[in-house]
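User: My collaborator sent over this chain with a note saying "see what the structure looks like." That's all I know about it. Can you take a look?
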Amino acid sequence: MDTENKEILTEENTTEELSEEATTTLDVDTADIDAELQRYGVDTESEAETEEEETKKKKPFIIQTPVIIAAICFVLVACIVFGTLGVYNLFFRKGIDGVWQSDVFAEGVYFVFDKKGTVAIDAGGMRYEGTYIFEESEDGTYSVKSDLFYAVQMYTDHTVTFGEGKKSMTWSNEYYTINFTKSKLPDYKIDAETITHASADEMGITTFKTDEALVGKWTEQLDESSVQMGYPKRTLVFEKDGTGSERYHFDLTASYGFEYDAVSSFKYTVHNGSVYITSESYSGEKMDSVIEGYSINGNTLITPDGKYTKADK
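Assistant: Without extra context I'll predict from the sequence alone. Here is the result:
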């Protein structure tokens, strides 16, 4: 009986103590509560960490609305800015890139400018190639300069004024004025199968013929004295289909400070060791030439006017 009473008293005392402890802890802060719980074997840190991990797992990654709106605004502004620049460059920004025809040069002669600073004076089978500079000065005037103009007996510097819509322009200096209108290049195709060379026609040559050994690119051999004197370097190209080109590179850097190229496109036929060459312009004008008697020794082409070395294209 005494033992049972002791056990009952002990359980009652323990319950009262726990009740008093739990009641007392209501007046303390969180740290004290955690300390009391740990005193009775509860791992509060593990439970807190577990709850935090569960919260992270359940919480999705969401891009906030202000960020999305800001990104959309940025894209729209970029489109507006670049679109405006494109319209400005197309309709308002001055430039001479494109194809132009003048009132001074013959019909079928075109000035072709690109945006990278390259210019060609193109007549079809014959053209000159070089570079140009187009500038706007502080007072709002425009000018164009190119050493290539020297090749067609023009002065190198001109003041430029534009007509409405950039469809016309005028070049002027103290010596002359040239008017240009916007144009486009005519279709140009070389018919190598039709022999039109006057001398070949007289000899009864009516069909195209090539020489496999002649096909390729050939660069003229110039000695040092010729280079120093400014002789143009000549390059010949013969294609299998009967077309070809001839390029003269004029390097006048030492004496005049510039260089340019003269290029002709042609069709050819081979007969009895000679090459009959014909170039045609946009206007239909025909220019004939002949390489009379040539020989090939390895990678060297020997002609009456010089030797050429075969080169990879």
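A starting point for your reply to your collaborator: The helical segments are 2-24, 30-39, 44-58, 65-91, 198-202, 224-228.
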